[in-house]
Design brief:
CATH architecture of the largest domain in chain B: 3-Layer(aba) Sandwich
Mean pLDDT of chain A: 82
Radius of gyration of chain A: 24 Å
CATH class of one domain in chain A: Mainly Alpha
Order of helices and strands of chain A: HHHHHEEHHHHHEEHHHHHHHHHHHH
Distance between the termini of chain A: 45 Å
Strand content of chain B: 15-25%
Shape of chain B: globular
CATH topology of the largest domain in chain B: Rossmann fold
Number of helices of chain B: 30
Structural class of chain B: alpha/beta
Low-confidence stretches of chain B: 6-39, 799-826
Helix content of chain B: 25-40%
Mean pLDDT of chain B: 89
Number of domains of chain B: 4
CATH class of the largest domain in chain B: Alpha Beta
Structural class of chain A: mainly alpha
Number of helices of chain A: 22
Shape of chain A: elongated
Oligomer: heterodimer
Largest sheet of chain A: 2 strands, antiparallel
């Protein structure tokens, strides 16, 4: 008789990690986004040998760009457009390296994209040495003590358990704002703001100072479903939009490229935004939100997922792209094929992931065919691709046919 | 035979590369064993690859076994396994020979006649064995003497090893004694200086400069394959930066042959050399002031937190380790000492490796403490490229033992070997004193001895004493796959299943930093002989004893036990299933940033993944975690200059006395990779790979410097009798410059009386030369301090030799072979 594994007090181990799985299981009807399984995507990243050419934050091959550090971030459409536009270069590089170009089956491309999306979510480890310097530069040392150095007017920061998740520190910093900001101003100190990786480095320093807990505390991704609720109840939805959808325009659009990055970097930008945001919320008669337990993590999970969903697809734009990029030349304006295969049978009613997967798998033959006719490789902007996928899914749909998968 | 240095180094490197790349074992195996109707010739059939874990040394390499028609025909490394990384050492490559060995113990064997000969044993059933052994154990317990049971064990950190320990503890005995103590001196040094009870981990891949004090890490480390891989990375594989490697020793080892520089020192002065380096670092202000100020105690004389005022390292170095004096004692020029010290300081990350020479040769505590002191001075404790402390695998505790009853009462007794803090010793195990206690019957007599994978009659520092001791034990059970020297003296031999025939779970081998759990299931559906895994044997014995012993295990069979442990690992919520280099980097990066995304959601998924890919591990290492790695009373690194001072004085007196005696030489022992840990001579590939620097195969030899050979009238390829206060052996002479004139070097691992047809009577056992001398501080046998005399001899004293056995001998094994063959065919 095998006994069940012991649980850690106060936690439900079996329930903590599967939050990521919620992305693929529960989000479809609730969020409208179709993000699949990032864990399977990670395995595909290795098994399809993407890691032979591409690194993720310095780990992996060096032939292709580092997918953890490039601008290949953001919505589904941006990711697919980047992959598509990159096809020919990639084919050449793979031929040079004698690698077999990967093709995808079932939901594999969706899983891989989910993994690439989640590279956005997770942080890189910061640099504690740089963080130590920031602790002084950002004036934390004036009030907080670490080791033998620092002030005593605020709680010491060398008792934070070693390895405390950075987002937990970000949450505490945010919640500490109403006390800390006025206090710093009263002392004539600049309220700290964080550029680039500064917040990661500062947290890496603080995470390395305290005593270790009996077991290490690692965190999984947050729960975007709870995050969606929080986005509304904490008042974020009042001001912020995604790709122009929602909000009042008072706060920045959260689909904006310059607001992307890992969740702790996002927390850093949110902190930098403290002054403006609290003032704006006050003007609307709202209280500055505070976050409990995993709320910040959940909120950011919602933001990442909603970003992945991307802007609304413009089918008209897709029709133009279908014509202007030369798709109609081979596949026919009615999608019945010609030089290229008949599209209407295989794309109609399909999900955007499936259509994108077909495009990807079809690319080598298409490249050869286009090359022999001296037709340039079509490149797409994210918006064009969004429209094109919507066009391909819906254009030739029979009246009364079921909605797009 | 004379070999030029260039050719020698070439041969060494060639051999190392050969080991890494792997031998064509399948081809050689078929050549070795093939006969007209050999049962070992694989038939045609479907090819499959199955995973397992090699258990021929404590390394625990993950292996991938090529099977045809279900029969293993080739063993290679599992590419996803973090220890082997797809590579394997010669021992692993030869492991099929241990599976198909004709002299494997065919089933439980009961002795019916004189000790020492397999002919005295008759085959029994497992039920008969368990009835008698279980009855005996029950009787001892019922008599209220559970403490009189002793477990002497060796080998890998396997499920069987843990089950054995658990069984003994639950039974009620504190006498769990380990025979292989290769890591003991290094562990004691770490305990004294850092307060941590574990073997040190050397971060070779990330360092730039390695100063090794006679360590044999490439040929006989806790995990030779992992060490060779780490060494490859150190030599530029990943970083493109080639680190420098300096080896300090009196006999050029295989490890030394791979170094950039060999510094030949007088025997036993490696630690003095290290303190000479330390002296330069301090005098020239080249030490890490920040580390010393914040994290070290005992650098300056005076009181340290938690201890009385004492001598500081600085004062000790100034007083006793001046350059001229160190140069005179070690035989190394002042300029070389100065240069090495400055190189050590200038490197971005530098590392000093202690003198562990092999699984049976731990090195002296003085040298290990000196290495520790140097590591602290250069500030590389727990830094990248420095000296790390391993994390334990988060295996859940097995059910708590009752604090009352015969078990608890038995455990309260003092250990027979006097080891551990209660016995006032620094060592955790002292098998030589155990032999003494058995003979003297003090503090209490031994009623029951279990030898698990341990062969003290060959591999202890007191083989003769053990031979006498074992005769005085009323009941001895040996769990062994082969008729080892000790097994032939037992009352029962219980054959252990081969690693390809059993379920197992290996945890992190000594010397690696990461927690790991390698899971293996049987590659073969049924064992080729009537064997069982040791875990199965201990579980069954526990059932036979019953009561609290039976309930001391969380499961009743090995797979369920492993599943229990893996479920606990899942609950720890860290790490991942073994994967590719990218997976490793991914987990490391994620955990470094505080995240966990392992690729499994449930304990069931982890279990399936572990079986599919080889196990679980956590590659993330949290550097400079001072509360974990500095657990001394002061919370700091403690130099222990007082201890160094005391030992240094004693050693200086001994060296002075030895230098005055020109007729005696220092005995330098080493363990060739192929027979390290006392196992390897059994498999015919391995005695042919004893040392790539010599022609000697299938026999022992003594390396003697040309000048020394001339003085003693010895010629290359002749024979020499080597005598000490402990005994004498006769071995082949190898005249070579790879040993200094004041020493004679002999390999350990041969000279068995048992072990099967190939091992039997091959070479000589140099442990017979060891006296009763002990390392003055650790209490370990003084493996490197024996003085010997040389005398020309006419020929070997041992029997017909291995080659005779190859062609058939009177060992009584032919019947065994027939039984095995029948079993295999059936």
């Amino acid at each position: 008789m095998i006994k069940p594994p012991p649980s850690r007090p106060g936690t439900a181990p079996m329930l903590r990690f599967p939050r990521i799985a919620l992305f693929c299981i529960l989000l479809l009807p609730i969020l409208g986004a179709e993000i699949r399984d990032p864990m399977k995507g990670q395995q595909l990243f290795v098994s399809k040998r993407c890691a032979d050419c591409h690194a993720v934050r310095g780990n992996g091959g060096r032939i292709g760009p580092d997918l953890g550090r490039t601008a290949v971030k953001g919505s589904f459409y941006e990711l697919v457009a980047a992959m598509w536009n990159h096809t020919q270069v990639m084919n050449e590089k793979m031929e040079e390296s004698r690698l077999i170009r990967p093709s995808f089956a079932n939901e594999e491309l969706g899983d891989l994209l989910a993994f690439l999306t989640f590279l956005n979510y997770f942080d890189e480890p910061g640099d504690p040495k740089a963080g130590r310097a920031l602790f002084s530069q950002k004036h934390c040392i004036q009030c907080h003590r670490v080791g033998r150095e620092g002030g005593s007017s605020a709680p010491p920061l060398d008792r934070i358990p070693r390895g405390t998740p950075p987002l937990q520190l970000a949450r505490d910093l945010w919640n500490h704002g109403p006390v800390m900001v006025p206090l710093m101003r009263s002392k004539g100190l600049d309220v700290p703001s964080f550029n680039e990786n500064e917040i990661l480095n500062l947290f890496a320093f603080l995470r390395s100072q305290g005593p270790r807990q009996k077991t290490r505390d690692f965190r999984s991704a947050g729960d975007p479903i709870k995050g969606k609720v929080l986005f509304a109840t904490k008042g974020c939805a009042q001001c912020h939009s995604f790709y122009g959808k929602g909000g009042t325009g008072m706060g920045p659009d959260l689909g904006r490229a310059d607001l992307r990055g890992s969740v702790t970097l996002l927390a850093g930008r949110m902190w930098n935004h403290w002054r403006g945001m609290t003032a704006a919320m006050e003007s609307l008669g709202m209280a500055t939100p505070k976050f409990q337990r995993e709320e910040l993590s959940d909120l950011f999970a919602y933001i990442v997922v909603t970003r992945y969903d991307g802007p609304l697809a413009d089918k008209a734009k897709g029709r133009n792209a279908y014509i202007q990029k030369g798709c109609s030349t081979c596949h026919g304006m009615d999608g019945r094929g010609g030089i290229g295969p008949e599209l209407r049978k295989v794309t109609t009613g399909e999900s955007r992931e499936r259509i994108a997967q077909r495009m990807w798998n079809h690319a080598p033959q298409m490249g050869m065919s286009m090359g022999s006719r001296q037709i340039p490789w079509p490149r797409f902007e994210a918006g064009e691709l969004a429209g094109l996928l919507a066009f391909l899914a819906e254009e030739w749909k029979e009246p009364g046919a079921p909605a797009v998968k | 035979m004379k070999i030029e240095r260039r050719r020698f180094v070439g041969l060494m490197l060639g051999a190392t590369s050969g080991a890494a790349v792997g031998l064509s074992a399948g081809h050689l195996l078929s050549k070795t064993f093939a006969t007209a109707d050999s049962p070992y010739d694989p038939p045609g059939g479907i090819e499959e690859f199955r995973l397992s874990v090699c258990s021929l040394c404590p390394g625990g390499c993950g292996v991938r076994v090529r099977c045809i028609a279900g029969r293993p025909v080739k063993v290679d490394g599992n590419p996803r396994h973090p220890v082997s990384g797809g590579r394997l050492c010669p021992k692993g490559q030869a492991s099929l020979q241990s599976l198909y060995h004709p002299d494997r113990i065919p089933g439980p064997m009961r002795r019916k006649g004189e000790r020492g000969s397999l002919a005295s044993f008759e085959k029994k059933t497992w039920e008969e064995a368990f009835v008698e052994i279980g009855g005996r154990l029950r009787s001892i317990r019922e008599q209220g003497k559970p403490e009189s049971a002793v477990l002497l064990r060796a080998g890998a950190m396997s499920l069987g090893s843990r089950a054995g320990s658990r069984f003994l503890s639950a039974f009620g005995s504190p006498n769990d004694v380990r025979l292989d103590r290769g890591d003991e001196a290094a562990s004691i040094a770490l305990r004294l200086t850092q307060g941590v009870k574990s073997a040190p981990v050397y971060d070779l891949p990330s360092t730039d400069y390695v100063l090794s004090l006679g360590s044999g890490f490439l040929e006989a480390s806790g995990s030779p394959v992992a060490s060779a891989r780490a060494f490859g990375e150190f030599r530029q594989v990943r970083t493109g930066r080639r680190g420098k490697f300096v080896q300090v020793e009196s006999r050029l080892s295989l490890t030394g042959a791979a170094a950039d520089e060999w510094i030949a020192v007088h025997p036993g002065t490696e630690g003095i050399f290290a303190l000479g380096i330390a002296s330069v670092l301090v005098n020239e202000d080249l030490y890490d002031r920040d580390f010393i100020a914040e994290h070290a105690a005992g650098f300056e004389s005076g009181p340290t937190p938690g201890s009385k005022p004492g001598l500081g390292l600085r004062a000790l170095l100034e007083r006793d380790f001046g350059l001229e004096r160190v140069a005179a004692e070690t035989g190394v020029s002042v300029n070389v000492i100065l240069r090495v010290a400055r190189e050590l300081h200038a490197a971005r990350a530098s590392l000093v490796v202690g003198p562990r020479r092999g699984p049976l040769l731990p090195g002296s505590l003085f040298d290990h403490l000196a290495a520790q002191a140097l590591n602290a001075l250069v500030g590389n404790i727990d830094g990248e490229g420095g000296l790390l402390v391993a994390e334990e695998t988060p295996i859940p505790a097995w059910p708590e033992l009752s604090a009352k009853g015969p078990g608890a009462e038995g455990r309260k007794h003092s250990r027979l070997d006097g080891a551990g803090q209660n016995g006032g010793k620094l060592v955790d195990s002292d098998p030589e004193d155990l032999a003494g206690a058995i003979l003297s019957k003090k503090p209490y007599p031994v009623e029951f001895l279990i030898l698990h994978d341990a062969d003290p009659l060959h591999s202890s520092a007191a083989p003769a004493r053990f031979a006498k001791a074992i005769e005085g034990v009323p009941f001895t059970v040996s769990i062994s796959a082969f008729p080892s020297d000790s097994a032939l003296h037992a009352d029962w031999i219980l054959p252990e299943a081969h690693f390809l025939e059993r379920w197992d779970l290996h945890t992190t081998p000594p010397g690696l930093s990461f927690p790991l759990a390698s899971v293996s299931k049987p590659v073969l559906e049924h064992p080729l002989v009537d064997a069982r895994s040791s875990a199965e044997i201990f579980l069954e014995l526990a059932k036979r004893v019953g009561g609290e012993v039976a309930s001391a295990f969380p499961a009743s069979d090995p797979p369920s036990l492993i599943r229990h442990d893996m479920d606990g690992i899942f609950a720890a919520q860290r790490g991942a299933v073994m994967g590719t280099a990218f997976d490793e980097a991914w987990v490391r990066m994620m955990e470094g940033a505080g995240w966990w995304a392992p690729g499994y959601r449930t304990a069931e998924e982890l279990w399936k993944g572990a079986l599919e890919f080889g196990g679980w591990w956590d590659p993330f290492y949290d550097h400079e975690e001072w509360a974990r790695v500095l657990r001394t009373p002061s919370g700091k690194f403690e130099f222990k200059a007082d201890l160094l001072d005391g030992i240094a004085k004693e050693r200086a007196q001994k060296l002075t006395a030895e230098n005055g005696n020109a007729t005696e030489l220092s005995l330098v022992l080493f363990e060739p990779l192929s027979v390290a840990g006392g196992f390897g001579a059994e498999l015919p590939f391995l005695p042919a790979l004893l040392d790539p620097g010599h022609e000697e195969r299938w026999e022992s030899w003594a390396e003697i410097h040309p000048e020394t050979a001339k003085i003693h009238g010895l010629r290359d390829k002749g024979w020499v009798r080597i005598s000490s206060a402990g005994g004498s052996i006769v071995v082949r002479v190898v005249v070579t410059w790879r040993v200094v004139p004041e020493a004679v070097a002999i390999p350990a691992g041969l000279g068995k009386r048992g072990g099967g047809r190939w091992a039997r009577d091959m070479g000589a056992n140099p442990f017979k030369l060891l006296g009763a001398a002990r390392d003055p501080l650790s209490g370990l046998p003084d493996f490197q301090g024996t003085r010997v005399r040389l005398e020309k001899a006419q020929g070997p004293e041992t029997g017909p030799g291995a080659m005779a056995a190859w062609h058939g001998s009177d060992s009584g094994l032919s019947g065994l072979e027939l039984q095995n063959t029948r079993n295999f065919r059936s």
